[in-house]
Amino acid sequence: MDAYLAAITIIALIYMLLSLGLTLQYGLTGLINFGHVGFFAIGAYTSALLSLQGVPLALSIPAAAVTAGLAAWPIGLISLRLRDDYFAIVTLGFSETVRLVITSEKWLTNGVQGIPGIPRLFESISVGIGAQLAVMGVLLVVTLAAIYAMRRIVASPFGRVIEAIRDNEEALQALGKDPARFKIQVLILGSALAGIAGAFYAHYITYIVPDQFIPLVTFYVWMAIIIGGVGRVSGAVVGTGLLMLFLEGSRFLRDIVPGVSEVEMASLRIGVVGLLLVLFTIYRPQGLMGDFTKR
Amino acid sequence: MSLQVSNISKAFGGFQALSGVSLEVPTGALVGLIGPNGAGKSTLFSVISGFMPPDEGSISFDGRSLDGLSPAERARSGLVRTFQVPREFAHLTVRENMMAAAPDQTGESLVGLFFRPGKVREEEQRLAEEVAEVIRFLRLERVADQPAGKLSGGQKKLVELGRALLVKPRLILLDEPFAGVNPVLIGEIMERIRELNGRGIGFLVIEHDLEALTRLAPHLYVMDQGRILTQGAPDAVLADARVREAYLGGAV
User: Fold this and answer.
1) Is the domain of B53 the same as that of B83?
2) Given CB atoms, is A293 within the 8 Å cutoff of chain B?
3) Which chain A residue's Cα is nearest to B69?
4) CB of B85 within 8 Å of any CB in chain A?
5) Chain A residue at shortest CA distance from B48
6) Which is a Pfam family this sequence falls into (chain B) (predicted)?
């Protein structure tokens, strides 16, 4: 049971990094990124492949952040020319393209068979729950660092400008600022966070296949920040925590509710999350951590 | 000559929105631009501020051509516009709205933000004082820490004016500053515009409401159907039969 709790916590922390990245991009800057999972995948494959070539994880994980961040740069350039809704479609297309490339470039990624045997963090600690706790500790430090950086950004002139972009981009241009520079930086930074999350995921699960990187992952992250409250760092943290609690908790629900098969339960789970989203949009659009005075 | 607009034409499909519009705003002047709805005033503003490229014609500001410059570049050169429907940063407070407009802040770069915190703090303090002064000038103290989205139409217009001031402009293009504003606040806004003009800031003001603008601007341009109809002192312009025809639909 302890191992199970540690596992959930690790996955929740990985999702928290994804949520923080999306909070920066959508919550603060208003960029509708529907392709978050693409950067997660790029991070996972980068760090997995490098580590299998013997690169130490202390280098391969930062490399995952850099690769995912670099992949966001051209997407950022595109975003400058597209309206919000088109940008959403392009990013969704991007993440699916990433998945298809991973699936078909077998020489690099082993295609649908995926990459097994990815080195774990703290492989030397092999007994008991020690390794799990160590991974959890590292992830906790990384997540706290990301939260700290985000809070610094929110309280800064940079944060003020990106929120102004979200509220009215043309007005900001009319005041002599160039939204382009800020949007590209935000996309790169948020995607680098997704890349780090992907790297931790790969080294924790130790086996990655293209099917783990479907758009549903992106939308789980969206659900988390909507429930928690978009545009707030605390919202990303609380929303992710609640979503994970629900997704995992509903596994036990099956033991209580009779006559529901595993497959039915999976659909039911998504249905309930959908219902929650609808209810939140109607009754609490600012999310749990949202501030009543705003909006 | 501060702003020089020469022979601007702009068509949308088959509709000629502007045809050969020329106008001038001398340095530090307060010039009005009136005309009935659909005359092309707002289109002209979009072209001057760089949001819309003209089909023909050119624009220069303080002897420098603005052709091909982005809206942001034009604003940085000292030519700042406001919008007909206020475009406040709704979730930022009035204070933050103005602070966001200040140019060249070290803390706007991520490197500056994380590696030069001392300089950022110092600049923020100085900026906060500057903004407090603008807020006092515009009499917005009571709402200074409220989200701008919650303000009344007139207050939003003042926030836009305040933001423009933070850019330290030499000429402000005001798009219908009195539209949807209650009469008491109209008088206030006019007073602020006169004061700023007295400090040397030039204004080009679009207004649909003839009466308000004739009280404010000593020199008027009149537009109708994409052309400049006439220009001159308010009395002379209002006495012009073509102007009355444009406004009253030929019932003179």
Assistant:
1) yes
2) yes
3) A176
4) no
5) A174
6) ABC_tran
Q: How many structural domains is chain B composed of?
A: 2
At residue B249 the predicted structure's pLDDT band, cuts being 50, 70 and 90, is low
Residue A170 contacts B where some CB pair is shorter than 8 Å: yes
The whole model's pTM is what? Answer: 0.92
Q: Are B171 and B143 found together in one domain?
A: no
Residue A166 has what pLDDT? Answer: 95
Nearest CA in chain B to A185: B110
Within an 8 Å CB–CB cutoff, is residue A292 touching chain B? no
Of A152, A157, A163, Cβ closest to residue B89: A163
Return all residues near A211 (Cβ < 8 A) that are at least 6 apart.
A112
HSE value, Cβ hemisphere, 13 Å, CA-based, for B96: 24
Element (H, E) at B22: strand B15-25
Q: What's the pLDDT tens digit per position in A226-277?
A: 999 998 999 999 999 999 988 888 777 777 777 777 778 888 888 888 898 8
Render pLDDT for A131-167 as a digit per residue (tens, 0 to 9): 888 999 999 999 999 999 999 999 999 999 999 999 9
Q: Give one DSSP letter per residue of A63-94, joined into a string.
A: HHHHHHHHHHHHHHHHHTTS-HHHHHHHHHHH
Count the Cβ atoms, other than its own, within 10 Å of residue A245.
12
- H or E element that contains B32: strand B30-34
Terminal CA-to-CA distance of chain A, rounded, Å? 42
CB contact under 8 A, A175 and B167: yes
Give contacts of A170 with chain B, Cβ < 8 Å: 51, 71, 83, 87
